[in-house]
Specification:
Helices cover about 50% and strands about 0% of the residues. The protein contains five helices and no strands. It is globular, with a radius of gyration of 16 Å.
Amino acid sequence: MTALGLQSGNPSHEAVYLAVKAECATAYEATCGNRANLRPEFSRVVDKFTYNQMKGSAIDNAIVQIYRNAQPNVRAWYDNWGVDGTSRNWIIRWFLYHLFRNRDARNDRKAKSMDFHADDDDEDSE
């Protein structure tokens, strides 16, 4: 939160942070809900998709939609942060990436093995 200029413990700042997370979660569900968003080599994956299994264009479209559909108070923060409604919006991309990261199957492996570095060899590039 502090990297975004938001203060932990400030109710209005925490509300913005939670709103961004909620808006990204909605886009995450929509993106994962459409198998056409998967890169062709991952078309047989059942569920718990990773960020890297999605087409770049699907992620870019999700970012644009999140910005366009943002609540007015959240949009004001995006604008204040100097990010726009394009796919270059690093704040939305970061939130979206972390949603994928926290919900993908790697977390199941780590929890089962109790080895919290079980996925250190995975590449997290775009």
